[in-house]
Amino acid sequence: MGASVRSFCIYGYGVEIYGPFLTKLKEDEWLASFYLSPIIKGEEAAPHLYFNTFKLIDNEWQLVRSYIETGVVRPT
What we know:
Layout: E1 4-10, E2 13-26, E3 29-40, E4 43-44, E5 48-57, E6 60-70
Antiparallel strand pairs: 1-2, 2-3, 3-4, 3-5, 5-6
């Protein structure tokens, strides 16, 4: 799946999101990663890179792991 860029406002703050990037780990497990860049007063704040692992449990996708890396460089 190709990544897309989305920009929107949350509670008056601008946010730019790159992703999602999806990686199949197992038949019933996927990794979703995306980059979030908050924009406060027109300036980019400390960006974050999110990694979330979802697993198919009882026919429902459930979040089983989450990891956040802060201060990463903006993807090109």
